[in-house]
Amino acid sequence: MKTRACDNPFSNERVDDLLFFEPEWLGVTWADLMGRLEELDYRGAVVGPHGSGKTTLLSALRTKLEAEGFSVQRFFLNEESRDLNEEDWRRLDTAGRAVILLDGAEQFSWMKWRKFLRMASPCRGLVITQHKVGKLPLWLTTQTSVEMLQEFVQRLDPGFVNRGVSLADLYQKSQGNVREALWLCYDIVAE
Amino acid sequence: MAELGIKTELDNLAYTPGETLRGEVNWKVDLMKNSDGGEVRLFYYTSGKGDRDVETVETRGVQIHSELGSQGFEFQLPNGPCSFSGKLVSLIWAVEFQVMESDETERVEFVLSPDGKEVDLYAHAEGKMPSYTNLRIGK
C-alpha cells in the first residue's frame, strides 16, 4: 500500500498544525512566561538546540502579544540567510514601539548584531532565539524529550506504535530534534 | 464568529488545464467585525516532506454588504502545474474563501490535470504513466 505524500500522517501540513507551543511541556503556564518577560522589560532570549521548539514558541508568543494589544514585527535568519534583506532592515527601522521577534540571532555577525540591537533599541521589546546563552538575558530554555516525541506521534498517528519502531531510537538518531524525528516517522510510513 | 461556505459549480472537483472553474461563496458574518469584505483565492500548495510551498495564482474580491449572503466567482484555470502525488510530495489545487478581518477560511480542493485524475508519481516511477500530451509539472 503506497501512501500519498499528502495522506502521510507525518506530512509537513499535519506536523505544522500539531506543533503549536504549549507551556505545559515546560512545566509552566503562560502567566509565568509573560510575567518573566515583563520582568525582563520584554527583552530576552529563548535558548535551545535545533528542533526544540524555539520557532514554534515565537509563533505562539506573537499570537499572545498581539492578543494583548502589542504590535509585533518578526524577522527570520537561518544558515542560508544570515542577514536581513533591505526590506527587513527598513521594516525594523520603521517598527516604532513594536515588539521585535528575531529567529536565529546566532546567525548574525557581531557587527550586524550590534546594528540590529541599535535599531531595535527604541522598540517596546526584543525577543530572540539562539542556541547558546548570550546576547540577551535568558527568558526561557526549550528542550525536548522522548516523552514529548511519543506524545506527538500518538497525536499524529495512533497506529504508529504497532509498527514496532523504537521512538527512543529515533529520538537518539535525530539528536533530540523532534522535527527530524517526525521526518524519520514520515519515511517509515512512506516505505 | 463568521460562518463561511464555498462550493464549486455542480460540486465538480476535477478540471482540465484552461477550463473555467465556477463556484459560489456564502457567509453569515457580523458586519461590525467584517466590514472590509472578503476574498476568494485560487492557489496550489505542496504537502509532504520538507518545506511547504504555497502559490496564489489569482484572487477575487467579495463584497459583503449584508450579514447573510452569497456571491458567485469564476477563475480561468492555468495550464499547470498539474495535481500530483508521490512518496515525498503532493501538489494540491484549491479555492479558498476568507473574510478579511478573520483568520477563518473555508476551502475546496480539486484536481487539475489533463484527464481529471491526479498524476500518480508512484505509477510514473514504475513506468505505468499514461502518455499525456501537453502535460506540465511545474510553472
CATH architecture type of the largest domain in chain A: 3-Layer(aba) Sandwich
In one word, what is the shape of chain B?
elongated
Helix content of chain A: 40-55%
Question: How widely separated are the two ends of chain B?
Answer: 37 Å
Explain this structure to me?
The complex is a heterodimer of chains A (191) and B (139). Chain A is α/β, with parallel strands linked by helices and 191 residues long. Chain A has two domains: 102 residues, P-loop containing nucleotide triphosphate hydrolases (Rossmann fold), CATH 3.40.50; 47 residues. Chain A contains eight helices and five strands, in the order ααβαβαβαββααα. Chain A has a five-stranded parallel beta sheet, sandwiched between helices. In chain A, α6 packs across α8 and α7 crosses α8. The relative contact order of chain A is 0.19. The model of chain A has no long low-confidence stretch (mean pLDDT 92). Chain B has one helix and ten strands; from the N terminus they run ββββββββββα. Chain B has a single domain, classed as Immunoglobulin-like. In chain B, a hairpin with a 5-residue loop joins β4 and β5. Chain B is mainly beta and 139 residues long. Chain B is elongated, with a radius of gyration of 17 Å. Chains A and B meet through α1 and α8 of A and β8 of B.
